[in-house]
Amino acid sequence: MNNLDLNKPVTNPRLSELMAKAKLVTQDQAAFNEQMNLVADEIVNRANLLAIAGVDDSKITDNGNGTATFHENSTINFHMLGATDGSTYLPLYTDWDNINMDPIVNSMKVSAIVMPFEQIASMMTNNNAGIVINPYNENLVITKDQIMHMASVKAAAGGVATEEIQKNTPIQLGEPKIYPTTMVNSIVAYAKKNKAINAIHLKLMQKEGQLLYLLIVDCNGNLSDVTQGIADAARPHVPQGYGLAMVPITDRLGQQAADNEAFYVKKKGLFGF
Question: Quick one: how far is CA 46 from the chain centroid?
Fold first, then answer.
């Protein structure tokens, strides 16, 4: 969980400031993308948002400090917002001032559940189209695909999210002079067990003075699960002084970088599968 002091009310002043700035630059796509990268980084690494929920009072114990203990078999029903196409979004709030803007507060007793990013990502089921932050104020919509991408970037970076690389961000790509053999061998051993992985390429990337081993991943299925597994295999063997990043081969950067021979390619069976 992101750092949270249970003795203080949940507020996210930095996130609120970044979202307000994003609204001011919506006409400038490059500036908006840059600002949204900062918003995403804040959500992933530092923010603790609030969700409105209905709970069964008989199944919880008030701890007397603004927190409560949920007992076994307790249920939580999260307040959702519906879109015109029938999809649903999870509304999240930066603070109680924004929760109080929701009309549901005037119609029923509500509770607030603190939601760090990991919990938000875990709730992106097939029925959820994404999240809406402060729907009656900034009304920032982040789709399920964007949430999953943010989660995969965080996993690929070993638990610390990095900003998405935009076309105006200066980077250099090349072949590593020091080949990370131990790291690659560990990744190959994992990839052989995960049938969703088709191929993995390796490049050296320099971004804003930082050297990173860039893995370009060609896979089927859940990208977040695949990158998490690769990150777990690679992390103990990343050479000192280097970072680790991953992109899917379907991304613009992935297509650009995957111009060399993959160090892992899934072997096909007799009938080509």
Answer: 12
pLDDT per residue over 95-138, tens digit each? 999 999 999 888 777 788 888 998 898 888 767 899 999 999 99
Left (φ > 0), alpha (ψ -120 to 50) or beta: where does 120 sit?
Answer: alpha
Terminal Cα distance for the chain, rounded: 40
Global pTM reads 0.54
Task: Round to whole Å and give the CA distance between 182 and 30.
Answer: 39
Spatial separation of the C-alpha atoms in residues 85 and 144, rounded to whole Å:
15
Q: What number of helices (H) and strands (E) belong to the chain? A: 9, 14
Question: What's at 177, amino acid-wise?
Answer: K
Contact 10, 114 (CB under 8 A): yes
Backbone angles phi, psi at 248, to 5 degrees: -75, 150
